[in-house]
Structures are given as C-alpha cells and as structure tokens.
Specification:
five-stranded antiparallel sheet, globular, mainly beta, 4 helices, disordered N terminus
Length: 426
C-alpha cells in the first residue's frame, strides 16, 4: 500500500496526525506560475502616506501582483491625490488600463480618513470611489480592503485579500493551529498542543473554527471562538470524532463518528445537540462538505471498493456517486458558487488537486506536484489553497481554479498542513 492510500485509511479511522507551523512564523509566498495576460494598473504612493509608520500602497500592490491577474505600471514616487482626476490619457500612454488615486487625511482623533478612486483609462471614466477610517497600525487591513475594491471593480469577483486562512504547523513535538492574513502575514496561534490538531473548518461568519484535537489522547471535535479563545466540545462520542464541516447557515456541523461501528456521517447542531445519522454504508464514509446552497453533503467513501466521491441530501438519504475517472478521488470541496468541485485525485501515481465541473462532469487536474492534500477554495472561488510536500516537509500552495496561477507558501524549518480558507469579511 503506498503512502497516500495509507493516509486515506488512517484518515477514515480518524487517527491521522497532520502537521502545523512554528510559533509566530510568517508564511513566505513564492509565485511559481501566473496567467498569460495581466491587467496593467497604476497603484501610486498615497498622498500623505509618509506620515504613517508603515505604508498602505505597498500592501495594495503586493496583493494585486500576487493574484497573478495584474501587472503594476510604475509612475515613480509622486502621489496621485484623490481630490484630482489623474491625466488618464498620460496613464494610458504609459501602458496602464486602470489607475488608482488615493489620499490619507489626518483626523483630530489620531486616525486617518482614506479616500480613493479608481479610473478606467481606456473609457476615460471613474469606476468607483470609497472612503474609510483607519488607525496608523491598520495599514495592512486597509491595504487589503483597497485591493479587494480594485480587484472587484476590475474582475467582477469579490476580492479575497482581507480574508484569513487557518492551518496547522508542526515544529518538533509542538503543534499549532495558526490563523493568518490571506497573504500569510500576521500569523497568530489559536491553539498550541503537544498532540495533533487536524481538520480546521471556518464558520460562515468567520468568527469560529471547528477542528479535531487529540489533546485528550483521542480525536474530539471542538468549536473555538477566535475573539475570546473560548472552546466548546461538540463531539466526544465513543471512538473517533472527526472531519467537522459547517452548514452554510452556521447552525449545524457534519461530522464523522465511529460510535456505531466504522466511520459514518452524522449531523449535529452547532452546540453539540441533536446528533443524527445521515447515511448507512458497509464501507467507510468520511470528509463531508456541504454544498453552498445547503442542499447536499459531498463526502469520500470506499463503499464501491475504492475511494470515490459521493453526495447525499443534507437531510440524509441515498448516496449518488460523483467521480468516475480513476480509482482514487478524495476530499471533495465545492466552490462557493457551487459550480466546481475540488478534490484530490491519483494521477499516474501522483496525488494532485483536480476540479470537476459539476454541470459538464469534466475533470481538470490543476497541479503537477505529487503529494497534494486538503484543498480549500478562496471565498470568491478564484484560488484553491492546499497542502503538499517539498523537500520532505509540508508546505502550503495555491492554484487558480483554471490552473494558470500558482503560488507556494512555506515557513522555514516547519511542517505546514491542513489549510482552510476563511469566508469573506462582513
């Protein structure tokens, strides 16, 4: 039995011990592939930005460039104040299709009002404007929100730069459940343990994480409120309690329990009450994931003899097989719009991220690595975060849903796995 098949069996039993990061280490992001065409934009230094301890415009530029969809047109160190319309013909002549103008206005309470406008140089029109308040220390959050604004105006999709990611890091005998900005910065440990932590899952409001901890020497499902650090046990039945995933309305969890035999699917309320079995199988059912409309639960099962992906009504019932190509397809994760299904497939001995178009049933393999795990969609569906291995240790990577943009996120001398991308911030 090869390594990944062994991992699958252990996961089904609820006893896999996946890894995590070292304390407060930042993810470094390397762009390993990008789309053929990029949208050229001007993101100038913001007016009065020099009065801040750290800049805002550099955060905006880094976000947009890292997305693989934009190229930056350099116009030098001079700002383009929000109060004036830039010379759009000049910007177009410099090769820019869009230009941002922005100013920081000091306020009496020590904060700043950030005003910015985005222009289309081709049509010579303003695409939108916004203002927001910020404290000097909020330069990164403000930059992410402005990048989200630019991204949405130019692509039609919500930006994801102000979202957060969760992941597990193992450094020596230490496991940490870490929360970081989508660009890997501002990493904070939500939980530190000498026992494995696996399967983090974000609540739809982004305020809580469900996960599995082995701190009691067995897998138990917890819900962790991030703002307070308060935790609640929601599944601690006989045997294994694993693979929690939230319903789209945040009122329920689907989990995998062995309390009645081998691993099977159950649902329960977010406070741990009302446990009910969703399916019965002679095989092992695991890795549930709700569809965005709440109507279906996708899951992995070997009920047909090999690991494949199925779905059942969220209220329970008969299972329908979803994947038919190959004899190993696991870890289903629907896209936020419900049109795609990301999963891990075995392809010529390699375990890679693939997407299935749920309308055409066509499958596309997105990665060329060999040991991919745990795919997780960005909340706008554009990128997929996943775990893989490089140089014998776990790293995170991201790939666009069309396979063109690729990134690698790693921390020196630590093993990183179990990524989960959080929802859009309200």
């Amino acid at each position: 039995m090869n390594r990944m098949l062994a991992i699958f069996r252990l996961l089904l039993a609820g006893v896999i011990a996946c890894a995590a990061f070292g304390a407060h280490a930042q993810l470094s992001i390397e762009i390993t592939g990008s789309g053929a065409s990029r949208f050229p934009v001007v993101i100038p230094v913001f007016e009065n930005e020099g009065s801040l301890p750290r800049g805002v415009s550099d955060v905006v530029r880094a976000d947009l460039e890292r997305s693989g969809l934009f190229s930056l047109v350099d116009i030098g160190p001079l700002p383009l104040p929000e109060s004036r319309v830039p010379d759009l013909a000049d910007m177009r002549a410099r090769g820019a299709d869009a230009v941002l103008s922005a100013s920081l206005l000091p306020q009496s309470d020590g904060r700043y009002e950030v005003r910015f406008r985005l222009f289309d140089t081709q049509k010579q029109v303003e695409l939108g404007a916004m203002s927001m308040r910020m404290a000097p220390a909020q330069n990164r959050l403000t930059g992410h929100r402005i990048a989200d604004f630019v991204y949405e105006k130019l692509t039609g999709l919500p930006g994801y730069f102000s979202t957060r990611i969760a992941y597990v890091v193992k450094s020596g005998a230490r496991y940490e459940l870490q929360i970081a900005d989508a660009d890997g910065m501002n990493a904070q440990a939500a939980l530190v343990s000498r026992e494995p932590i696996i399967s983090p899952s974000w609540s739809p409001d982004g305020q809580r994480l469900a996960y599995v901890s082995f701190e009691a020497k067995k897998p138990i499902v917890y819900i962790h409120t991030l703002a307070t650090g308060q935790r609640q046990v929601v599944a601690n039945f006989k045997g294994s309690n694993s693979a929690p995933t939230w319903s789209p309305d945040g009122t329920q969890l689907a989990v995998v329990l062995t309390k009645d035999g081998q691993s099977q699917l159950y649902a329960l309320n977010a406070d741990g009450s009302g446990v009910r079995r969703l399916a019965s199988s002679a095989g092992i059912d695991t890795e549930p994931a709700w569809s965005p409309d709440g109507q279906w639960i996708y899951f992995t099962s070997d009920r047909g003899g090999s690991p494949q992906i199925y779905r059942i009504p969220a209220t329970g019932g008969s299972a329908q097989r979803v994947t038919f190509d190959g004899n190993y397809n696991v870890t289903p994760r629907p896209s936020p719009d419900g049109k795609l299904l990301a999963f891990i497939t075995r392809n010529n001995g390699k375990f890679q991220v693939a997407v299935n178009d749920l309308n055409s049933r066509q499958t596309t393999i997105l990665t060329d690595s060999a040991r991919d795990e745990s795919p997780s969609f960005a909340p706008n569906g554009r990128m997929i975060l996943y775990a893989t291995e490089t140089g014998g240790r776990g790293v995170l990577a991201a790939v666009s849903s069309d396979g063109r943009v690729k990134q690698r996120l790693s921390v020196q001398a630590a093993d990183v796995r179990e990524p989960a991308w959080g929802p859009l911030q309200k």
